[in-house]
Amino acid sequence: MQQEQLLAQIIAQYQLGQPQMTHLGILWNSTYRVMAEDGTRYNLRVCNPLFQDRRCLRDELVFLDFVAKRGQVGVPQPVPNRHNEFVTVVSTPEGNRLSCLFTWIKGREARDRLSAPVLHQMGRSVALLHEAARAYAFPADGDGFRKDYRYDEKLILSHREWVVEHAVEIGNERIALLYRAIDAVLTALTRDGKCRDNYGFIHGDLHLGNFIAQGEHVYVIDFDQLGRGHFCYDIATLMVDLLDEPGDFDARWNSFKAGYQAVTAHPFPDAQRLTPFVIAVELAFLDWYYNSMTPFARVHYTGRFQATYESIQNRVGNV
User: Fold this and answer.
1) What is the pTM of this model?
2) Is the pLDDT of residue 1 over 70?
C-alpha cells in the first residue's frame, strides 16, 4: 500500500476533517505533524510494519493517558479514534499497521537550552513522572503489562548473550570487563530490591532529546520504550547524556537534582549509589551499538563507544 493511502485510512479514523500533514522523520517508527481543519495540531506515530504487538502499544498509551490526566507533568496525551480506542489498526496487503495520535507538544529540545531553571524543571518533571508511576499499578510477574520492556536484572542478564555473540570483535580484555560490570550491577540490584519507592514503570529513554522546553516549562515525550525498572535507571540515563554535553556538568546536575528533590526525596541516591545504574545504561548502549547500528552509525558513535568502555572501567570498582 502506498504511504499516502495508508495515511488517509489512518486519518479517516479521527474527526480531523482534511488535515495538513508534515513528515517529521523515521527512526524505527514514522512520525508526522498533523494540523486539523480547525488548526489543532497533533503528532501521529505510524509504527514500523515489523511491530505488531497491539497489547504492548495499548499499554504504553493507557499509562501515558493516566499520567496526562493527573495534570502534574507535561506529556503528549493519546487521542482516541472514532471507536474510542487509542490504537488504530489499518489492514494492508502487507499486513496490519498500527498507529496512534497524540496532542502536539510545542517547543524545542531541552538540549538546546540547558539553563539552571530548565534543568530544575526537568528534575521536577522526572520526579512527578515517577510519582505517577508510584500511583499506578505496581509491576508484577505475569501481569503482561509491557512485559518485554525491562530495565532490571532481566536486561542485565541478557547482556551476556551478545558478549558471547560478539566475542571476537570485543576481545578478551573487554569481555572480562563486561562480565565484571554485569555481575556488579546484578549484585547492586539485588541489594536495592524492588518496592514502590524505587521501582515501577519508567520512561526507559530519558535522554535530553526527549525533553521539550517551552520557555521554562518542560515536557517529557517519546514513551515508546516505557517499561519496568528502577527509577534510578531513568535518572542515570539523563546523567550519562549530560556528561557528554559541553559545559558545567556539576552545576547542571545540581539544578536537576534540586528540581527532583523538591518533589520527592525518593529514590535519588548519592553519586556512588547511582553508579551501578550508570553502568547499566552504558551496557545498554553497547548492546545497541553491537546489535542495532549500521556501519555508518557506528562511525558516527566511535567517540561515544570508546568513552563508554572508559566509563565502565572507571566505575566498576566502585559499585
Assistant:
1) 0.94
2) no
